[in-house]
Amino acid sequence: MNSAGGRCHDNARCESMWARMKEELFYSRNDKSENYTIEELKTMIWRYYMSYWANRRICTANGGLPPAVKRALYYDSLSLAA
Protein backbone atom coordinates (compact mmCIF):
# COMPACT_ATOMS: atom_id res chain seq x y z
CA MET A 1 0.00 0.00 0.00
CA ASN A 2 0.94 3.60 -0.41
CA SER A 3 3.04 4.75 2.54
CA ALA A 4 1.60 8.27 2.31
CA GLY A 5 -1.93 7.23 3.07
CA GLY A 6 -2.41 3.51 2.87
CA ARG A 7 -4.60 3.53 -0.22
CA CYS A 8 -5.06 -0.06 -1.29
CA HIS A 9 -6.03 0.94 -4.84
CA ASP A 10 -2.42 1.89 -5.54
CA ASN A 11 -1.61 -1.83 -5.75
CA ALA A 12 -4.57 -2.81 -7.94
CA ARG A 13 -2.67 -2.94 -11.24
CA CYS A 14 0.23 -4.87 -9.76
CA GLU A 15 -2.06 -7.37 -8.07
CA SER A 16 -4.05 -7.77 -11.27
CA MET A 17 -0.85 -8.50 -13.21
CA TRP A 18 0.25 -11.17 -10.71
CA ALA A 19 -3.22 -12.74 -10.71
CA ARG A 20 -3.24 -12.94 -14.50
CA MET A 21 0.23 -14.48 -14.58
CA LYS A 22 -0.74 -17.14 -12.04
CA GLU A 23 -3.93 -17.90 -13.95
CA GLU A 24 -2.10 -18.33 -17.24
CA LEU A 25 0.93 -20.21 -15.90
CA PHE A 26 -0.63 -22.45 -13.27
CA TYR A 27 -4.37 -22.40 -12.61
CA SER A 28 -5.48 -22.86 -16.23
CA ARG A 29 -3.18 -25.90 -16.45
CA ASN A 30 -4.37 -27.42 -13.17
CA ASP A 31 -0.82 -27.10 -11.89
CA LYS A 32 0.72 -25.69 -8.73
CA SER A 33 3.85 -23.66 -8.22
CA GLU A 34 4.90 -26.13 -5.51
CA ASN A 35 5.60 -28.68 -8.27
CA TYR A 36 8.57 -26.65 -9.55
CA THR A 37 12.01 -25.79 -8.23
CA ILE A 38 12.92 -22.17 -7.53
CA GLU A 39 15.09 -22.08 -10.66
CA GLU A 40 12.26 -23.44 -12.82
CA LEU A 41 9.88 -20.83 -11.41
CA LYS A 42 12.36 -18.03 -12.04
CA THR A 43 12.76 -19.18 -15.63
CA MET A 44 9.00 -19.48 -16.17
CA ILE A 45 8.30 -16.03 -14.74
CA TRP A 46 11.18 -14.44 -16.68
CA ARG A 47 9.98 -15.95 -19.95
CA TYR A 48 6.38 -14.99 -19.26
CA TYR A 49 7.12 -11.33 -18.66
CA MET A 50 10.00 -10.76 -21.04
CA SER A 51 8.55 -12.67 -23.95
CA TYR A 52 4.79 -12.80 -23.61
CA TRP A 53 3.76 -9.88 -21.38
CA ALA A 54 6.11 -7.29 -22.85
CA ASN A 55 5.73 -8.27 -26.49
CA ARG A 56 2.98 -10.65 -27.55
CA ARG A 57 -0.09 -10.28 -25.33
CA ILE A 58 -3.16 -8.63 -26.78
CA CYS A 59 -3.73 -5.31 -25.04
CA THR A 60 -7.12 -3.61 -25.30
CA ALA A 61 -5.56 -0.24 -24.41
CA ASN A 62 -3.48 -0.55 -27.61
CA GLY A 63 -6.47 -1.11 -29.82
CA GLY A 64 -6.12 -4.89 -29.62
CA LEU A 65 -2.48 -4.88 -30.69
CA PRO A 66 0.39 -6.60 -28.90
CA PRO A 67 2.85 -4.15 -27.28
CA ALA A 68 5.67 -5.02 -29.72
CA VAL A 69 3.46 -4.20 -32.73
CA LYS A 70 2.29 -0.95 -31.14
CA ARG A 71 5.92 0.07 -30.45
CA ALA A 72 6.93 -0.71 -34.03
CA LEU A 73 4.05 1.37 -35.40
CA TYR A 74 4.96 4.24 -33.09
CA TYR A 75 8.61 4.28 -34.15
CA ASP A 76 7.62 3.97 -37.81
CA SER A 77 5.37 7.01 -37.43
CA LEU A 78 8.26 8.98 -35.92
CA SER A 79 10.53 8.21 -38.85
CA LEU A 80 7.80 9.18 -41.33
CA ALA A 81 7.19 12.48 -39.54
CA ALA A 82 10.88 13.44 -39.65
State the helix count.
Answer: 3
Tell me the strand percentage band: under 5%
Mean pLDDT: 82
Task: Report the order of strands and helices.
Answer: HHH
| Radius of gyration of CA atoms, rounded to a whole number | 17 Å
Question: In words, what does this structure look like?
Answer:
With 82 residues, this protein is an all-alpha fold. It has two domains: 35 residues, no CATH class; 47 residues, no CATH class. The chain contains three helices and no strands. The relative contact order is 0.07. The mean pLDDT is 82.
Summarize the structure.
The chain is mainly alpha-helical. It has helices spanning 12-25, 38-56, 67-81.
Provide keyphrases for this structure:
single chain; 82 residues; mainly alpha; 2 domains; 59% helix; 0% strand; extended
Topology:
Layout: H1 12-25, H2 38-56, H3 67-81
